[in-house]
Design a protein that fits this description.
The chain is of the alpha/beta class and 206 residues long. It contains eleven helices and seven strands. It folds into two domains: 123 residues, Rossmann fold, CATH 3.40.50; 66 residues, no CATH class. Helix 4 runs antiparallel to helix 5.
Length: 206
């Protein structure tokens, strides 16, 4: 008896670098206005020792900012550190709403799930840009206590969604995350441009 192929109708999609896009220019220019030759905030904030606790829920987004401020103050002084972190906290990103609309317009589209390494501020961020109801489900690393590319992140996500690896596709802009998902047998794409990603969804979810 011939076994029918599984239908892939769940799109697991990353947030930053795929849907939400940040520019470093504004903060770099602000750092220069404070007399700094380069912007030290990003190397500090996104170092593993600061980032990992924030995206696995061990500390809040605000605690992350406070920790970064404390470290920066050691080398650049309290005032400069506070100004940099305040500016960082207030930065606004660009959201690709048109991309999301095009994904949902795919004929065989089922559900769209946001799977992201994010801090405790994610829900507020989604609300502030009008995306709070855009995704059918949200899997936030800081809420489940583990971040991509850990394999258990994907196991937990699939269990929460009630879908199997054969019923979904995964899209991310970080190679390690894509490699991890592929190692579990999840059809995955390293996002580089919208056209390629839409074609991938169309072909794999047909």
């Amino acid at each position: 008896m011939r076994r029918e192929a599984s239908v892939r109708n769940t799109v697991l999609i990353d947030f930053d670098g795929v849907i939400r896009h940040w520019s470093s220019t504004e903060l770099d220019n602000y750092a220069a206005s404070l007399g700094l030759e380069s912007n030290p905030l990003f190397p500090c904030a996104f170092s593993e020792r600061h980032l990992l606790p924030a995206i696995t829920g061990r500390i809040s987004h605000e605690e992350w900012c406070d920790n970064v401020c404390f470290d920066l103050s050691k080398d650049y002084g309290q005032n400069v550190a506070e100004e940099l972190v305040k500016k960082w906290y207030s930065l606004e990103a660009e959201i690709d709403y048109d991309f999301l609309t095009k994904i949902r317009s795919q004929p065989s589209f089922g559900q769209l799930v946001l799977v992201t390494n994010a801090t405790s501020r994610l829900n507020n961020d989604l609300h502030s840009v009008g995306l709070e109801g855009e995704f059918d489900k949200v899997i936030n690393s800081s809420e489940i206590g583990i971040a991509k590319p850990a394999l258990n992140y994907f196991h937990i996500a699939l269990k929460k969604l009630g879908v199997s690896k054969d019923n979904c596709v995964f899209i991310d802009d970080t190679p390690k995350n894509v490699e991890a998902a592929r190692s579990l047998g999840i059809e995955s794409l390293l996002h580089s441009n919208i056209q390629e990603t839409l074609q991938f969804i169309e072909e794999k979810c047909a």
